[in-house]
């Protein structure tokens, strides 16, 4: 498989932690090297009790690092994090999974994971009771929400001489997961992506405003996935408590007018624009400079339309592949398809907010295309839907080219 960086070998950092399945990491390392990948191995102190570092050094023809102090003059955790194309942690113990989820960086591997801006693949292996414990499952959900690929363990014979869930996934499944994240990483290399996310707020007075329940999660996950695929991302983000992905150029806005100005400034030269933001459709005609008292507030409030940012983008897209979102409660496909045509979009993602949407962990999307095209993406976490949506959009763009 070709490298995401051209013709050079792909560089994979293999983190080996302290479980009985550590010996299987050696076979994985050998397979990666044999197919032409460059592999750097980092072992935790516990891993060294199960398998010697000389094994990995012989397989990779590279020194194996085990400590932050192995080469203090070169700051190894930063260098390794920057040089890797992907990180695989195999096997991943319950202890290490917890540290990754909590951002604890008390050893070399933890520091690398915290500094990394590349795809991470985690393959858990442990006793079934430990794997199924609510704490472990919560940590795995946290990692998955951040974009980490989890290669689920299988059922089999465990070190405790019993059968159960927790056996390290087969080598083929781990290699396939690495191929998937590395392949995705190359797809948008060199492209500029514009994404809008979150709500807008239209001020009534200094403490009151008109807004909606959007959290910006879907747009943030789409930005995270675009970055993982190699894109340069401009993220125009309305008010939200969520943190945007590191690596995106983030423009924070509050009102629809501010969002319009930021979008138009970023739109020139964008290869793809995805408008997930829930822009308020109306704003007060008058904004009061001081907080109104209850007896000063009229029974009705004069409103006016906010700018239609997506329609303006559609009228002047100039080669940009333009994608909209439609949050609907009834006759969703009919309304979304009308919006697709009216605003000159190349695709629109329909979100039935009666079944999930604003403020929920899972969602369900249907993508509509000009000419009657339709693709149902199913129900999944917003992180997973971001992957599926990008896959769908890129297939559609390629078919149209």
The CATH superfamily name of the largest domain is CoaB-like
Side by side, the strands of the main sheet go 12-11-8-13-16-17-18-19
Largest sheet: 8 strands, mixed
Poorly predicted runs: 1-7
How helical, in percent, are the residues?
25-40%
- Which term fits the overall shape? elongated
Q: Any idea how many domains?
A: 2
Number of strands: 19
Average predicted local confidence, pLDDT: 88
Radius of gyration: 24 Å
The percent range for strand residues is: 15-25%
Total of DSSP H or I helical runs spanning 4+ residues: 13
What class would the helix/strand composition place it in? alpha/beta
Class of the largest domain, according to the CATH hierarchy?
A: Alpha Beta
Brief overview:
The protein has helices at 22-34, 53-60, 76-83, 94-102, 108-115, 128-132, 134-145, 171-187, 217-228, 256-267, 309-315, 332-342, 382-400, and strands spanning 11-16, 38-43, 86-92, 120-124, 149-150, 154-157, 163-167, 192-197, 202-205, 208-210, 232-237, 249-252, 272-275, 282-284, 303-305, 321-328, 347-352, 362-368, 374-381. By secondary structure, it is of the alpha/beta class. It folds into two domains: 11-187, Flavin prenyltransferase-like (Rossmann fold, 3-Layer(aba) Sandwich); 192-400, 3-Layer(aba) Sandwich (Rossmann fold).
């Amino acid at each position: 498989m070709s490298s995401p960086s051209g013709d050079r070998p792909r560089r994979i950092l293999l983190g080996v932690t302290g479980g009985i399945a550590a010996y299987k990491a050696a076979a994985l390392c050998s397979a990666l090297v044999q197919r032409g990948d460059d592999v750097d191995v980092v072992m935790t102190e516990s891993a060294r009790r199960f398998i010697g570092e000389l094994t990995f050094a012989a397989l990779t023809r590279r020194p194996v690092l085990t400590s932050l102090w192995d080469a203090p003059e070169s700051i190894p955790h930063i260098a390794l994090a920057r040089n890797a194309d992907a990180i695989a942690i195999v096997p991943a113990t319950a202890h290490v999974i917890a540290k990754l989820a909590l951002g604890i960086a008390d050893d070399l591997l933890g520091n690398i994971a915290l500094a990394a801006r590349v795809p991470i693949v985690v393959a858990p292996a442990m006793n079934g009771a430990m794997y199924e414990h609510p704490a472990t499952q919560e940590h795995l959900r946290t990692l998955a929400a951040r974009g980490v690929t989890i290669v689920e363990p299988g059922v089999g014979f465990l070190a405790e001489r019993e059968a159960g869930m927790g056996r390290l996934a087969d080598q083929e499944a781990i290699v396939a997961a690495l191929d998937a994240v590395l392949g995705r990483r190359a797809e948008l290399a060199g492209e500029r992506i514009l994404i809008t996310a979150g709500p807008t707020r239209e001020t009534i007075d200094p403490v009151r405003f008109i807004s909606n329940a959007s959290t910006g999660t879907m747009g943030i996950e789409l930005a995270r996935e675009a970055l993982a695929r190699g894109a340069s991302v401009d993220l125009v983000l309305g008010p939200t408590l969520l943190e945007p992905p590191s690596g995106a150029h983030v423009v924070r806005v509050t009102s629809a007018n501010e969002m319009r100005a930021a979008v138009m400034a970023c739109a020139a030269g964008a290869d793809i624009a995805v408008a997930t933001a829930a822009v308020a459709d109306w704003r007060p005609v008058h904004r009061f400079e001081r907080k109104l008292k209850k007896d000063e507030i009229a029974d009705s409030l004069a409103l006016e339309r906010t700018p239609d940012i997506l329609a303006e983008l559609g009228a002047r897209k100039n080669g940009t592949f333009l994608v909209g979102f439609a949050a609907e409660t009834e006759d969703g496909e009919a309304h979304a398809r009308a919006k697709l045509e009216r605003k000159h979009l190349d695709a629109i993602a329909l979100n039935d907010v009666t079944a999930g949407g604003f403020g929920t962990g899972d969602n369900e999307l249907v993508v509509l295309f000009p000419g009657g095209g339709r693709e149902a993406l199913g129900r999944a976490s917003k992180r997973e839907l971001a992957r599926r949506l990008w896959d769908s959009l890129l297939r559609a763009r390629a078919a149209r080219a």
